């Protein structure tokens, strides 16, 4: 057997392609600062914060999605940094 071998062509196998799962629409929540300013945050961003996730889960259990969530002790500049 020689040290150099000719490359062997292997036929490509058509692998089954999984269909892409339909993307769920992104849900946005509106947080309202104590100044009355509103900041929108996506549900994906909310999931990254345990505090915000718990807050949204508890407050939005029966509330409409278009209602704002009051953040009574947080002014807009601080809220923007958190979000």
From TrEMBL:
Domain (SKP1 component POZ) ranges: 30-83
Alphabetized InterPro entries for the sequence: SKP1/BTB/POZ_sf (IPR011333), Skp1_comp_POZ (IPR016073)
Membrane-spanning intervals of the chain: none
SUPFAM superfamilies membership: POZ domain
GO BP, sorted A to Z: ubiquitin-dependent protein catabolic process
Protein name (record): SKP1 component POZ domain-containing protein
Protein species of origin: Caenorhabditis remanei
